[in-house]
Design brief:
Helices cover 39% and strands 37% of the residues. The protein is built from four helices and six strands.
């Protein structure tokens, strides 16, 4: 009887853990879908709402490391000054990996369709943390890949 109770408890905990990871994965994918949508509306301000508003935020790209939410936002506005430069964004999420109940690593590809400026794309890795029940990007490493 004791073994049955132990196995039942293990299965219940495993099922609950799996259900939570599935919900968290869905929530992280919603963050990325919202970012994609806000980018395609040309709304960098709304796009930035899914980043941690902190000086500890890191954006790593070809220009090096940018620290801080405001500096990252300023970098986006400088790099993408108009709709033609922003283009239409498409994400392809390749992998999500939960390192803990409050930390997720995401690997993906990005592509900007830009008829006037030429298409560009590349890869990214994100680290998201669950802060006050909300998944936020705390580190973004985005690289452009030359075709």
């Amino acid at each position: 009887m004791k073994k049955v109770l132990q196995i039942s408890t293990f299965l219940l905990i495993s099922t609950l853990s799996f259900a939570q990871v599935s919900k968290d994965r869905a929530d992280v994918l919603k963050v990325l879908a919202r970012q994609n949508e806000n980018w395609n509306k040309g709304n960098i301000d709304a796009f930035m709402e899914d980043y941690l508003k902190s000086d500890s935020l890191m954006f790593i790209g070809a220009g090096g490391i940018t620290y801080g939410w405001q500096a990252t936002k300023d970098r986006y506005f400088k790099s993408y000054p108009d709709r033609a430069t922003m283009g239409q964004l498409k994400f392809d999420i390749l992998k999500t990996d939960f390192h803990s109940p409050k930390a997720c690593w995401v690997l993906g590809k990005w592509h900007l369709t830009r008829p006037e400026k030429g298409d560009i794309g590349g890869v990214f890795t994100l680290i998201l943390k669950k802060v006050n029940g909300k998944w936020l990007i705390v580190s973004d490493h985005t690289s452009q890949v030359k075709n």
